[in-house]
Amino acid sequence: MGYDYALVHVKYTIPLAALLTLISYPLFTRLDVVRTLFIVTIAFVATIPWDSYLIQTGIWSYPPDAVLGPTLYDIPIEELFFFIIQTYITAQLYIVLNKPVLHAKYLNSPTTVPQWIKHGKIVGQVALAASVGLGAYLIAKEGEGTYMGLILVWACTFALFTWTITAHLLLALPLACTALPIIAPTVYLWVVDELALGRGTWAIESGTKLEFKLFGDLEIEEATFFLVTNMLIVFGVAAFDKAVAVCDAFPDKFDEPADALSMSLLRARVLPSSKYDMRRILGLREADARLAKKSRSFRLASSVFPGRLRIDLTLLYSYCRLADDLVDDAKTSEEARVWISKLDRHLSLLYKDPDSTSALLASQYAAENFPASALSALDMLPSSKIPREPLAELLKGFEMDLEFSSKTFPIATPEDLELYAARVASTVGQACLELVFHHCDHTLPAYMQAYLRNTARQMGLALQFVNIARDISVDAKIGRVYLPTSWLKDEGLTPEDILKDPTTQGAANVRRRVLNKAFEHYAEARESMKWIPSEARGPMVVAVESYMEIGRVLVRKGSASAADGTGRATVPKSRRIWVAWSTLMTA
Predict the structure, then answer these.
(1) Domain co-membership, 346 together with 410
(2) What is the DSSP string of 545-580?
(3) 531: pLDDT strictly greater than 70
(4) Boundary of a domain, candidates 271, 302, 328
(5) In this structure, are 347 and 203 located in the same domain?
(6) Burial degree of 499 (CB within 10 A; 0-12, 13-18, 19+)
(7) Among 362, 387, 412, which residue terminates a domain?
(8) Where does the Lycopene cyclase domain lie (predicted)?
(9) Phi then psi for 213, rounded to 5 degrees?
């Protein structure tokens, strides 16, 4: 009896697992628990027969003074724990790195798969099949290649299967989401294994190995083992994620979302890719691209929402962003008013009757009156889950923007500022909350839902005030001043003065007043967010805190020192991640 192998876990694997748990804990969902249990169980069950065979045939051995003693099928308890802890570590790293990714947008049907992905899948299949063949040859040959052969036949057979069913998604995902969770744990475990082999914690029978060391005491077989097993783990979790993505992307095919953990998830796993609605997937890609380009804070926050809620929030934001861009990019105010009129007409058709006919009429109208690049955002607006009123009110906010001219500045008083912010931001906050009510299980009575709608509108005011305080210089370049004229007058300024120089001390003083109002609204609404349904509470708070952090930066540093290349104050990505993580820990 000894403690050497147990100490390997105490010193190296358990601390890393604990660190990853700490990082992933606030991001962890019920689906992540199932995802982890799924891959750990498969890895544990699949590895026991193989490892037991290695020990019983003398390829593997553990000195009696290096292990505690208890075994299962001759496998020491420490080795059994290694199956679990390695899988857990790699799976956690994969889950953390994949949180920001909207997997549904990477789905493809046979007709939309890029050629390089098709070729990559074939290359992978050939390489894995060849590895299985090489392994079989080494086993048949016996002698020094036996252990390597057993590794290749066992691991690459499983890898070939999971690669075949998941390669299109694996190759489409960013490398940081797939290669990194393979490479990082592999290199770490190489170092750990080299130390263990050097100490004699476990040993490989000399007649069954190739006698080639990658570095130090690390045998090439051990290096290969950790590489291929981490590949298996990532391939396996990605296969699970593909089922989740399919289930959440196509609510018309699956009644329940993936996080309901129903038979829908299994049916999604076996749905042929030829049945995918690629028009919807392409629309999701466009929507996510708008989110990435226009709102880094909300995109970061959206990554921790449940699957279908995340998708609908992305589609809602895409619609709002599109509408704003159509109006802002118009060459004349007359053209902008035409776009507002068309958007209003589209909403009228969409909400005319609560049936499919309305959607068809609205889609036909959109195709005839909007550019092709706008159609997916218009057609995929989740209108069945959102009332028309906040969207119609949003268009009134755009109309207020059109009142600006070289001599006209519609934000004359703080009340005008409140009205404008209510129309362009409170409306969006309410619409987001309606989606939360739709997607999340809750028993909130009607009066509490009304109370939370008011909270959402109040928080919308806070976020828009921060936006206005941030963008004084940017807005001045396009002839707009959202600072109340009455507040400017208190500083001896006019809107025209802001257009000429938005960086004066007087402008900074008014910015501070706007920020003070922002934090007043924030303080009034923040406590009430605790009543938001639990599945969405943390992500909603992250969305708020990520944006309010911009306000805090402005208060601390002012606009100039906090600005990016566009003249807007910004928060570094590392800071936004920290705000999101710390917020979720306490939400």
Answers:
(1) no
(2) HHHHHHHHHHHHHHHHHHB-TTS-B---HHHHHHHH
(3) yes
(4) 271
(5) no
(6) middle
(7) 387
(8) 16-94
(9) -110, 130
Retrieve residue 330's tokens. 């118009």
Residues 65 and 92 in one domain: yes
Give per-residue burial for 453-474: e unless 16+ CB within 10 Å, then b.
Answer: bebbbbbbbbbbbbbbbbbbbe
Provide DSSP, 303-319: TTS-HHHHHHHHHHHHH
The answer to whether 111 and 168 have CB atoms below 8 angstroms apart is no
In this predicted model, what pLDDT tens digit does every residue of 278-320 receive, in sequence order?
Answer: 999 999 999 999 988 877 767 777 888 989 999 999 999 999 9
Query: What are the C-alpha distances in Å from 234 to residues 116, 181, 183, 310?
Result: 21, 7, 11, 23
Cα distance between residue 264 and residue 260, in whole Å: 9
Q: Can you name the residues that pair with 204 across neighbouring β-strands?
A: 60
Quickly state the pLDDT bin for 354 (edges 50, 70, 90).
Answer: low
Find the domain containing 505 and state its range: 403-586
563: left (phi over 0), alpha (psi -120 to 50) or beta: beta
Residues 6+ apart with CB under 8 A from 338: 330
In a domain, 242, yes or no: yes
**Residue 349 token pair:** 């058709």
Q: Is residue 153 part of a domain?
A: no
- Tokens coding 44: 């544990």
Of the pLDDT bands very low, low, confident and very high (cuts 50, 70, 90), residue 27 is confident
User: 230 and 105: one domain?
Assistant: yes
Q: Do 288 and 296 form a contact (C-beta atoms < 8 A)? A: no
Pair 294, 228 in one domain: no
**What total number of domains does the chain contain?**
3
Q: Are residues 319 and 357 in the same domain?
A: yes
Residues 45, 186 within the same domain: yes
